[in-house]
Amino acid sequence: MLSYISRRLAVSFIILLTVSFAVYVIFAFLPYDPAALTCGKTCNDPGIIEANRHRLGYDLPFFTQYFLFLKGLLFGRSFGEGAAMITCPAPSLGYSFQEHACVTNVISEALPVTVSLALGALVMWLALGVGLGILAARFRGRIVDQLSTIFVLIGTSLPTFLTGLMLLVFVVIKWHIMPFPAGNYTPFLENPFEWAQILLLPWITLAFAYAALYTRFVRSAVIDTSNEDYIRTARAKGLSEGVILGKHTLRAALAPIATMAGLDFAGLLGGAILTESVFNLPGIGRLAINSVVNIDLPIIVATTLLAALFVVIMNLLVDILYAFIDPRVRVV
Amino acid sequence: MTLLKIESLSVEFPTPDGLVKAVDQVSFEVNAGETLAIVGESGSGKTVTNLALMGLIPKRTANILGSAKFESTDGVVNLINSNQKELRKLRGREIAMIFQDPMSSLHPFYTIGDQIIEAHQIHNEVDIKVSRARTIELLEMVGIQGAESRMAAFPHQFSGGMRQRVMIAMALVNNPSLLIADEPTTALDVTVQAQIMKLLRDLQKELKMAMILITHDMGVVAGTANRVNVMYAGRIVESAKVRDLYANPLMPYTQGLLASVPRMDRTKIGRLSAIPGQPPSLISLPSGCSFNPRCNRKTEVESGKCESQMPELRLRADEHLVRCFAGEGA
Amino acid sequence: MSVPIMEVRDLAKFFPLASQGIFSRVKGDNKAVNGISFSIRPGETLGLVGESGCGKSTVGRTILKLYEPTSGSIIFEGEDISNYSNSQMKALRTKMQMIFQDPYSSLNPRHTVGSIIAASYEIQKIVPEGGVKKAVQELMERVGLNPEHYNRYPHEFSGGQRQRIGIARALALKPKFIVCDEAVSALDVSIQAQVINLLADLRDDFGLSYLFIAHDLSVVQHISDRVAVMYLGKIMELADVDSIYNSPHHPYTKALLSAVPLPDPLLEEKREQIVLSGDLPNPADPPAGCVFNTRCWKAKEVCFATQPELLQVGSSQVACHFPE
User: Fold this and answer.
1) pTM, entire model
2) Any residues with CB less than 8 A from the CB of A196 and at least 6 apart, and which?
3) Cβ C23–A7 below 8 Å, yes or no?
């Protein structure tokens, strides 16, 4: 098992390196001059542009730039010299002139927002999706099942921005069920109540779409598993339906759900672009979309790399978790 | 002593294409300690009969009629109209079942020890240590070496034959009085089949339990059963003591079945005498005797009778029941 | 004695076992077929029996070059085809065909029976006399299918009829040699007899040669002229059908035969069964010496040390240090 994990870590590392290189290639060959972008869209002063080009190392050969980028990740990086020197400590992802900040700092401010959003939504959609899926499978063809079908239909067809907007319009503005969010984002440690209050609607918005998918998936997984021969064996032993469902069916049916949830969670950590935009949450997703709009290249590279990092890490975690659930894939 | 008495058992599945009569008016008895074989081809109703007895056919999907009176330790129970709670008390404790495919019949995520212990724990309010000891005892009894350490193994670490031994151990953990073995060796190789059938015969004698052996293999039946029911298209067409059936099969289908298997014990013949045609679809059974389109003895009966009337299952000799007009006399 | 239609010399087929992951290293080989030799004469049926995992199906696929042989030679009608490329094989495929076990999964459910059978002509770009449809319908009639069912789909047929479709497809190009891989195993007893009779009739009518691979020893006895018994990638015994069944020389053959349940209660009662203990060893790691030594009741020191050759014993070829 340990050798398996170390091998997988090595592979993950190579994947990340490849992604970073690919992103960097795109970054370098985009039809934009990164130096020209540093002083805003309307800036046209060649002096400033050339000075920034030199300062940020954009005048260096491509491979040197990439090497410096990697080196910055490990050891930190300084831009410019003397009084104007800007130092971004490791892990440095570069410097964003538009934000006037080290990219790492920008990211680390946005990340807690996205993590809070993704985590809350994950808990909600798992509870709802798995619960409803099991009920629908257990009472197949009955009213619960039919209601769940309607839920699945609505959840999978409504786009998140519409759900989010409708929630805002009705719950907050029209019906005053909830007060208007007190701000953009409040860290959990500062005020957990406000944290939850601000995030509640975004959670529901995200969870709604995912829960629908999970309901459908769990329902069919449970039904498929309950047709397995070993479930018939469990019944022949004289186990009650509750024990059969809880101990025998769900263990096998939910194993693939763990994989699915891990990967979906990783995807959200890379930024829930629409939801963050609708609710004006200063998370990774909004950061990414703004950086694209403003062509803030260091941030684009950083957010892309971050998304890849989450996917790779979650993939590994999910595979290790799966080995614990299913003895057949355990590597000796 | 009659352990199980089945009367007019019918199982019908409503489908969009019509009513499928998988089992039609089946009656038979199983005596304590004996082996009754139910022989038939796919679609003959042999498996459905037994799933119905175990209450393993969801009531919503099928109409189950008739009665099946089982002599349990707490008195007679009708398996057909009992509720699931009553049936659960019997399943795994007094009536146990083993299935065709030992590969898929064990839960892949639990150790075999846990699965057998679970089967013991449901029906006995004892400490887990007792169940553990009982599990080891059973695993040794079915011939698994190093039972104590093998308990921690998962099903995929066993061969097919070993898994079927595990299934048998699990079925016998509560000393059932009836074991239903549904094609227990069909998925196994012939040498492993010999091991498993010998094990079943030995254990049956030792534990004095009755066994219903469901199979399509006339050879497996010959070596194991006391009595045989032959099923065709949902009905019993012949029922006899095993020696009588093989020495003197009376129903043309049984005769055809015995004649169509190549025989290693006889001199080689040029052609097998195959039964012509296909088994009928259960949705559109032929009128009259279900076997009549394939039967070669219709000429012995007045014309049109086989096509219009279903023959009764009649006593023809000592404990030998046959459903056929041919040879019935006037 | 005529030239064999198919001759196999020291044939071996190993499947590499890979460990999981991207940095996988080959962890050894599954020695599915490990040096076997046999020949089949024109018009002859060689039965190949053995338990699952003995490599009998791999033999069938390798001699048709569906798998590349690891070593050894495959000689078809005097030509060594072991190193033939796919395009060289394509021309030969008209002469050698295969019938599979599962008549359902080997037929494309979206194609009509007519087009399934006709596909053989299309692939080989052959136009049979009188046109494709006529030829296909004649074939259907020959294997006992109603030619009017030309436009039906596989799911509209029963298991036995589907196997007839598979047979018709194999026969379309008038092959000389057919590998029947568990061709009747999935069928019900009453249908099995029909298909066995059909296969025997076709053999006699068209002068076909079969390699008849099956685990059912009664069926193999019925249809074969000679029989090879395989165990763990090796041939244990090879002889005329009567010698194999009446006077087996190899302990494994004896055990195998004694394990077959006979449909006669009186015989079953008197019969002495040799119940083999244990399971098949792992083909990736076969026992040293004789591969059967872990389950053999006659095994002595020499059996664990040296691999017995397939030698003549009476009229049989036997690979055993202590043949009976």
Assistant:
1) 0.86
2) A120
3) yes
